[in-house]
Specification:
Order of helices and strands of chain A: HHEHEE
Structural class of chain A: alpha+beta
Largest sheet of chain B: 9 strands, mixed
Enzyme class (chain A): ligase
Shape of chain A: flat
Mean pLDDT of chain A: 91
Distance between the termini of chain A: 36 Å
Strand content of chain B: 15-25%
Largest interface: A-B, 37 and 55 residues
GO molecular function (chain A): ATP binding; glutaminyl-tRNA synthase (glutamine-hydrolyzing) activity
EC number (chain A): 6.3.5.-
Number of helices of chain A: 3
Strand content of chain A: 5-15%
Keywords (chain A): ATP-binding, Ligase, Nucleotide-binding, Protein biosynthesis
Low-confidence stretches of chain A: none
Low-confidence stretches of chain B: none
Structural class of chain B: alpha+beta
Helix content of chain A: 25-40%
Family (chain A): Belongs to the GatC family.
Oligomer: heterodimer
């Protein structure tokens, strides 16, 4: 699978990363190279092999349904560029 | 065990300018899981808290924070699945759905696209006595809710609250088996009822704890049957999705509008573009949300922070063993055991608390009489006063006491209504209150006969008229009851009046 310039532009947009138009060809080539490298894995026959999700024999950890966190409004808001009355304030987004 | 034979309702047909069209509807219901804490963090799910106070660093997506799943939310999803007679998947997995929006701090929603926890189930949607649609449920998956944006507090800024961020949702996806706006509302009502019986979602639509995305398409008659035979969507029209409906009334309006919009386009030779639309209740129309459309490339992939969710059949069996009686079963039992009509049984099983109340009144008494009193007197009064069944001033014991007094003939129906009023406002034991107030109907034939004779003797002119027109006998009945201070048993008075007047 190769990444063309349009795909590179789209991926950048979806990821909200600004990429100048003149940088797109190089980026597309790089991404294609990465995917090409990964595609080598397709040569391995994995017929009948269950996908591995973890290298350790662990099960998904679960917790009890108890309130053990929260009530840290000032710490939650601490890094925000703008806050009002306990809310994050962002440029208007409305449909 | 359960008699659930029913006829299938006719689909809604809309007459276009050129020909008839049928509706095909599928729904995605987002139901908030009833739990104390969030799906992946220990922050509270309580509503009405200070903004951003029910937020943990996990919910705010601070770097390095990892999700840990809430076991009870898994249980609730399994319970919901069992309630919809669905297959439970012992192995499910979480995926990331990627998009950017200010109310989604992670930049992705953790959901279950590829391996949902609950598989195929069904909901029986009744549209009248003996008429019902069996709507197939495709799946239920667990996912995180987003935060809440407020747009009207400032002219240039939106305010964001993450209190709801990360609260567990069940997305319940139906097959396109719903055939009209009323069926759609009935489906949501039934699903809500089942979830409330199960205690897995409180169903509060006003708070957005239950909301629906509605997929609407139209097709020519006959096409839907071809789809059902083949399960091939090519037989159906292109659908549009109406987002975020949390009112039954608006939902039916939106579906009706959307169907007519699509029909107008198709009859005009146009094509339906698959898109997401929003209903504007003020204008009564749906409009495109194109701005959101172009971002609809979610690039799902398995969430690397979470191992697959594996549960044991034994645990599922344990949950199954604690399932409550569900609405269909309860309704059937009420009809069989208490002799209720279909309508009364529906009313009395709509809410679990009301059903429990009715059962307490009906146990050991005449079910039909109990149903009449609960529905007409109690519910009528509760509605009028805006009081819920859980706050009723007349307990089931008290109402049962009133029903007992009627059954034993000690008080008349009219007295019972007065007694109900007194118990409602002053409380007390019905038998004692009735005794203290001298509420006791006279059933002594001699005493009533004497009163009837007296009235007949005093009103010769009326007697003449009544003999000519038997309908006027009612006047005598009224006079006799009045003469006995309202205590004469009406049925007996009536019989004696008819007899004495020789009617």
């Amino acid at each position: 699978m190769s990444i063309d310039i349009d795909t590179a532009r789209k991926v950048a947009k979806l990821a909200r990363i600004r990429v100048e138009e003149d940088q797109l060809p190089a980026l597309a080539t790089e991404l294609s190279g990465i995917l090409g490298f990964m595609e080598q894995l397709n040569e391995v026959d994995v017929e009948g092999v269950e996908p591995m999700t973890s290298v350790t024999p662990m099960r998904l950890r679960r917790r009890a349904d108890q309130v053990t966190d929260g009530n840290i409004q000032s710490r939650i808001l601490k890094n925000a560029p703008d806050t009002r009355e306990g809310f994050f304030a962002v440029p208007k987004v409305v449909e | 065990m359960l008699d659930l034979t029913y006829e299938t309702p006719k689909p809604k047909v809309i007459a276009g300018a050129k020909h008839d069209w049928e509706l095909v509807i599928g729904m995605e219901i987002h139901a908030q899981v009833s739990s104390n804490s969030k799906l992946f963090s220990g922050a509270s799910t309580q509503v009405g808290a200070e903004p951003n106070s029910n937020v943990a660093f996990v919910d705010a997506a601070m770097p390095g924070m990892l999700p840990v799943i809430n076991e009870f939310c898994i249980e609730q999803a399994v319970r919901s699945g069992l309630g919809l007679k669905a297959a439970i998947n012992l192995r499910s997995a979480f995926d990331r759905k990627n998009y950017f929006y200010p109310d989604l701090p992670q930049g992705y929603q953790i959901s279950q696209l590829y391996h949902p926890i609950v598989g195929e189930g069904e909901v029986l949607v009744e549209m009248g006595p003996g008429v019902a649609r069996l709507v197939r449920v495709e799946r239920i998956h667990l996912e995180q809710d987003a935060g809440k944006s407020i747009h009207d507090m400032d002219p240039t800024m939106s305010f964001v609250d993450f209190n709801r961020t990360g609260v567990a949702l069940m997305e319940i996806v139906s097959r396109p088996d719903i055939r009209g706006p009323e069926e759609a509302a009935a489906y949501v009502t039934k699903l809500r009822q089942i979830l409330r019986y199960l205690g897995t979602c409180d169903g509060n639509m006003q708070n957005g704890n239950l909301r629906a995305d509605v997929n609407v398409s139209v097709c020519r008659p006959g096409q839907y049957e071809k789809y059902q035979a083949t399960q091939d969507f090519a037989h159906l029209g292109t659908r549009c999705e109406i987002k975020n409906m949390n009112s039954m009334r608006f939902m039916t309006q939106a579906i009706d509008y959307e169907a007519r919009r699509q029909i107008a386009i198709l009859e005009d030779g146009g094509e339906i573009v698959q898109e997401t639309r929003l209903y504007d209740p003020d204008k009564g129309e749906t409009r495109s949300m194109r701005s959101k459309e172009e971002a609809h490339d979610y690039r799902y992939f398995p969430c690397p922070d979470l191992l697959p969710l594996e549960i044991e059949q034994a645990w599922v069996d344990q949950i199954a063993a604690t399932m409550p009686e569900l609405p269909d079963a309860k309704k059937a039992r009420f009809m069989a055991d208490f002799g209720l009509t279909d309508y009364d049984a529906n009313v009395l099983t709509a809410e679990l608390d009301a059903a429990g109340y009715f059962e307490a009144v009906a146990r050991g008494r005449d079910g039909k009489q109990a149903a009449n009193w609960v529905i007409n007197e109690l519910f009528g009064r509760l509605n009028k006063e805006g009081v819920s069944i859980t706050e009723t001033p007349v307990s089931a014991d008290q109402l049962g006491g009133i029903v007992d007094l009627i059954a034993s003939g000690e008080i008349s129906g009219k007295m019972a209504k007065d007694l109900f009023e007194i118990i409602w406002s002053e409380g007390g034991t019905p038998a004692e209150v009735a005794a203290a107030r001298g509420m006791k109907q006279v059933t002594d034939t001699g005493a009533i006969e004497a009163a009837v004779d007296e009235i007949i003797a005093a009103n010769p002119a009326q007697v003449e008229k009544a003999r000519a027109n038997p309908k006027l006998a009612g006047w005598f009945v009224g006079q006799v009851i009045k003469a006995t201070g309202g205590k004469a048993a009406p049925q007996m008075v009536n019989e004696l009046v008819v007899k004495k007047l020789g009617l």
